[in-house]
């Protein structure tokens, strides 16, 4: 029965491409090597100035499952949205043009997506600097994810939340994706997933690392506070308002994460020209987030007291960070 259903479904793989000639062949080939074959690969060239478009068109001429879009540069969100607009699959997934995936990734994930009637399935991912990986194993754990799990983990600490924030290790239902699209924000993946979670009734996690997130030398450093970091803070204010409006029972997760980001942003921007801009957005949203924070009985008193001190006396957080960083050396 599952085999029959699998023959009837289709998957749209959307890959934004921008000046990726050095790595693009690895990424495209890892899709072509999939054991699951009923997919379309949509390559969206986002105004590349190198030979990326030529590489995409070369693959398109050899494989009818590949479709190429060429557009002026609109950023990763604009490229993904262009792919969504023409996607024909019942399901959608995303991939970055310098990453690679296990050959069985889509087969494993779609088998569970179909047989278990899921609205979302996600797998583990590896952060690595090379394209060498071990083959997927047949034995792995799969666990159910509740809405509580999803909202709690997407707003968790940064060392564990990235797999839940990312869109490239998940398969989505196209009917829900079309209701959202991507906004041009600082953390567009998290904003997208935060909205998608609203539609989920059934979701599961495959506890196997099937996606390889390539960390390249020369990538943008996040050590210095930048305008993008400001947009990330702006996004978390937006997501907090979204959760309050649509999924209020999980608001404790988004508001605690928001406060932590406020403290961190103040600390990192303290000696930059963006310091005043950070203080302005904090002041603008001060009243609305305080009401949510203090009225929520799911947030413990210790956290409320500690965050109040950090919020109104920023130097205490600065000292807290300085001590922790010194201990870590």
What would a concise description of this structure say?
The protein has 329 residues and is α/β, with parallel strands linked by helices. It contains 14 helices and nine strands.
What's the CATH architecture name of the largest domain? Answer: Alpha-Beta Complex
Please mark out the parts with pLDDT under 50 across 5 or more consecutive residues, or reply none. none
Provide the structure class. alpha/beta
- Count of helical stretches: 14
Strand content: 15-25%
Average predicted local confidence, pLDDT: 92
CATH superfamily label of the largest domain: Spore Coat Polysaccharide Biosynthesis Protein SpsA, Chain A
The helix fraction, in percent, is 40-55%
| Number of β-strand runs | 9
* Overall form: globular
Order of helices and strands: HEHEHEHEEHEEHHEHHEHHHHH
CATH class of the largest domain: Alpha Beta
Explain what you see:
- The chain is built from 14 helices and nine strands.
- The protein is of the alpha/beta class and 329 residues long.
- The chain folds into two domains: 2-214, Spore Coat Polysaccharide Biosynthesis Protein SpsA, Chain A (Alpha-Beta Complex), CATH 3.90.550; 227-328, no CATH class.
- Strands 1, 2, 3, 4, 5, 6, 7, 8 and 9 form a nine-stranded mixed sheet that branches.
- Helix 3 (52-62) links the parallel strand 2 and strand 3 (66-71).
- Helix 11 (251-269) runs antiparallel to helix 12 and helix 13 crosses helix 14.
- The longest helix is centred in the C-terminal third of the chain and has 21 residues, at 275-295.
- The radius of gyration is 21 Å and the shape is globular.
- The model has no long low-confidence stretch (mean pLDDT 92).
């Amino acid at each position: 029965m599952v085999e029959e259903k699998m023959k009837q479904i289709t998957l749209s793989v959307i890959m934004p491409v921008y000046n990726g000639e050095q790595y693009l062949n690895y990424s495209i080939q890892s899709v072509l090597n999939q054991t699951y074959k009923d997919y379309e690969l949509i390559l969206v060239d986002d105004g590349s100035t190198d030979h990326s478009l030529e590489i995409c068109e070369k693959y398109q001429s050899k494989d009818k499952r590949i479709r190429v879009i060429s557009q002026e540069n609109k950023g990763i969100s604009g490229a993904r949205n262009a792919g969504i607009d023409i996607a024909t699959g019942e399901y959608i997934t995303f991939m970055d043009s310098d990453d690679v995936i296990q050959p069985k990734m889509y087969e494993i994930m779609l088998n569970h997506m179909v047989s278990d009637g899921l609205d979302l399935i996600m797998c583990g991912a590896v952060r690595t600097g090379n394209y060498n990986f071990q083959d997927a194993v047949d034995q792995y754990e799969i666990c159910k994810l509740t809405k509580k799990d999803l909202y709690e983990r997407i707003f968790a600490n940064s060392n564990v939340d990235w797999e839940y924030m990312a869109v490239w290790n998940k398969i989505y239902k196209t009917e829900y994706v079309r209701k959202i699209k991507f906004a041009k924000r600082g953390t567009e993946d998290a904003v997208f997933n935060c909205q998608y979670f609203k539609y989920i009734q059934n979701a599961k996690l495959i506890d196997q690392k099937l996606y390889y997130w390539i960390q390249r030398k020369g990538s943008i450093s996040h050590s210095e506070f930048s305008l993008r970091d400001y947009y990330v803070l702006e996004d978390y204010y937006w997501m907090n308002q979204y959760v309050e409006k649509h999924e209020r029972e999980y608001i404790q997760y988004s508001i605690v994460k928001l406060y932590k980001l406020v403290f961190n942003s103040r600390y990192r921007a303290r000696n930059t020209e963006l310091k005043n801009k950070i203080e302005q957005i904090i002041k603008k949203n001060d009243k609305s987030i305080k009401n949510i924070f203090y009225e929520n009985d799911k947030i413990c008193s210790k956290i409320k007291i500690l965050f109040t001190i950090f919020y109104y006396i920023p130097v205490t957080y600065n000292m807290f960070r300085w001590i922790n960083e010194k201990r870590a050396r």
